[in-house]
Write a structure and sequence with these properties.
Structural class: alpha+beta
Distance between the termini: 32 Å
Strand content: 15-25%
Shape: flat
Number of strands: 24
Radius of gyration: 40 Å
Helix content: 40-55%
Number of helices: 32
Length: 951
Amino acid sequence: MALGTMILRKMASNKWLQLNLWFGLTLCVALFSSMPLYSDAILQRTLQRELQLVQGESSAYPGYVRIRTTVSSTKMDDKTIQAIGRADRFVRTIPERTGLPAQAFYEQRFTPKLKVYGADASEQEKKTQKTAGAFASLSGLEQRVRIVEGRLPADRQDGALEALVTEKFLNSVKRSLGEELIAEAPDKTPLRVVPVGLVATSADADPYLPYLTEQAENSLLLPFKTFEREFTAGGKVRVAELEWRYALDYAQLSIGGIDRFLEAATDIKRYFRGRLGAEEVNVPATATVASYAGKQARLDVTMLSLYSPVMLMLAFYLYMAANLVIGRQKTEIAVLRSRGASRAQIMAAYAAENMLLGAAALAVGPFVGVGFTKLLGASGGFLEFVQRSALEVSLTSGSYRIAALAVGGAILLVLFPAFLATRVDIVAHKQRSARQPRMSFWHKTGIDLVLIALAGYLLYNFGKRQEDLKRLALDQDALQIDPLLFLMPAMFALGGGLLLLRVYPWLLHLLYRAGRRWWPPSLYHTLVQISRSSGQYLTIQVFLIMTVSTGLFSANAARTINDNMESKIRYAAGADIALSTRWASDAPPPAMAGAEPGPEAEASSGTDRRVQYTEPPFEPFANLEGAASAAKVFRSDKARFAAGKTSGKTTLMGIETKSFGETAWMKDGLLEHPINSYLNLIAPNPKAVLISRSLADKAKAKPGDAIRLSWDGLDQAAFTVYGIVDYWPSWSPLKSGEPGKEELPYLVVGHLSAIQNRLAVEPYEVWLKLADGAASQDIYDELAAQKLSISGLTDANRQLAVSNNDPFRLAINGVMTLGFVISMLICFFGFLLFWLLTLSGRTLQYGVLGAMGIPFRQIILMLVSEQLLTSGAAALIGVLIGGWSSELFVPMFEMSFATTAQVPPFTVVYRLADYLQLYSLVGITLAVGLLVLGWRLSRIRIAQALKLGEE
């Protein structure tokens, strides 16, 4: 009880320090708990969205399960009946196996097709009648079909079966409702059946799993119990096929249930494979769900690697706060040691104190982690947020387990300064306080040199690996983001910062000696103070260096990743939207399967007659309200060129220079000159063309040379080379083809009018550039309203939206944004904490300076100059190291892209706005800190300070 009272009193006396320590522990808990929360939430959202796309692309409900199997047995013996019963029982367990509740279910039975004719049919009619139908059953028949005419079947005592039929089937047997039919079994046994109702599909019966009567037009539909009594158990006709259909609630499928779902799908296929006959199992969601298997583990690793710089910053903050707390209590600890307290007793007291803080952090931190997770989900880029539906986040036992481990590790970290302080008694403590500060542990052990060497070694290995990947031409799925790509810059920043801070005091000492005769008192005092006691500033300086350098690296890395992914999508599309339209032509219609070719097809196959196309009007596209401009772009990959003695295949593009320049998207810096300069170059001459660098090198062609073009047996047309380009919108200059047979592609760009006049008129694409404020949906609505015939569409904005919603890209943007914000936040609190404690420790010193007659303005200048030479210098060093780490390590992210399919080539992107944001935040931190310190300094009274010194 006494120990608890002492701990609480001690915490109360240092409440602001304890509050800062609790703040750091809470952030630690929030960060660690947000990792599993985010990976679960974002994968859950993307999984549900992709499952919804399954319905749009394949017109199949995402939770649809269909099992159909034949029954190979030729008779309904006990073995067959038992096998069917076991299959029924297995199917009933599917919802439990998948972990998804059933929204709808029905099963069907079918006999072989039987010859059906009227009971009053003549012998001649029996011979000519070709109508065949199978007895079928449907569970829940009464609720799943719509009776158009007649009534539902009922049991009869005369041995006849009542059935439901479609109008088409009834017409084929040339009978009416109520007239008896005969279904002739394979053994010629006549089965009496009376159609009593006409059925059609009921649109309102089941929105998830409707029964479509069109799929069973030639069936005699019986109630399920009747079918089971007469055929499955009665054996009048053998059961030929069985079918079960489920509509499972796919919205209940969680990331944690993926393995269970896939295992259930595999079990279903395994169970029915050859058990009753030929099986057909259709679970359309399997491929989509299978793509998420293992994705959570990879995302967790990516999240951990993204968080590593922030965690390092947080560890620094916790250690600094704990060190400052222990620094104020070292005398107290030394006194306790001198009076007989053991190290274990002292550590137990500090452990109990930190466990109280840890428990408080554990109570609040996970909920802060939920907020972090929602912030990550709203991130659309680095320091950019978009309006999208919030992530559905719920705390789990796993989140609390990880949070508890994080708190335990953080407590061990903050106990380390206390452990070091318990090694000395009061005598040793006073001796150490009187001595000059020694070299810091970081510099004494050479950790700075070790970290720089390790980062350099890893950088070298990554460079070699990148060269190997390019040489081996690995595809884009061969590599994921390596966690070390985020850890290496943090190691380099820490090592580089410590190395520069090793040299910095010597530079200050040289500066002091160079101008000690001229320095004003404020600067003189500051230079002496910092050069003699540089060790006490090391923690806050390293803290600021890490904040600024990792912030710059995060900004540059995020911008580079986002810009390269966006450039790749836009370049491949060529414009915001690329449309293919249907052109009228004299091409013969395609022959039906099994049909003999008509005379037109025979004539066309016997000659080389070219298909003649009729160009549709272009004005409807040019006048679209949502489009700022539209361009005609002809492209043929089957063209051939001849230049000098060289000939071969090439891609030919025909454009109208003015509209193409207004519409196409081209990244700056890919060409030697702006793309409009090349368009202006060829604009005056219809015969002018641009060729690719690959074609120029192969044919040794240069501007002014002639080149001849044709395709599909056309007469060659002569053109003149006006320019050579390395890239062109939508054209890839990279090698393609089978492995070992890759070839460089070639390109020729000419005037569309000249190609149409001198070669042939063939369908071209329509490229659109969206007007300001217009969306792709506006274009779609206009196209639909004008009933324009579209055969193909590429929408760069839609592809960008899909890319932006990728879980890994969301994690990169979100975590880097969150890490930057958290870094600046803890930097601000750490800055204030350090300097407020430093100021309170110098109360006597400032009181003596005031008593000596130094004006308050000079004391403020001392404080400002000390801030600039410590915190300001650390911020500048952070900028330098952040720039160096970006230059060295951001290019390594190229390995995260397709090493052989990145067009345009990977480039490192820097944005001035990011630097200005960082400088502004650091400047605000320093300015607010100076204002608070100045306010605290103004409240120091000389008499009180001198009295404190006497005591």
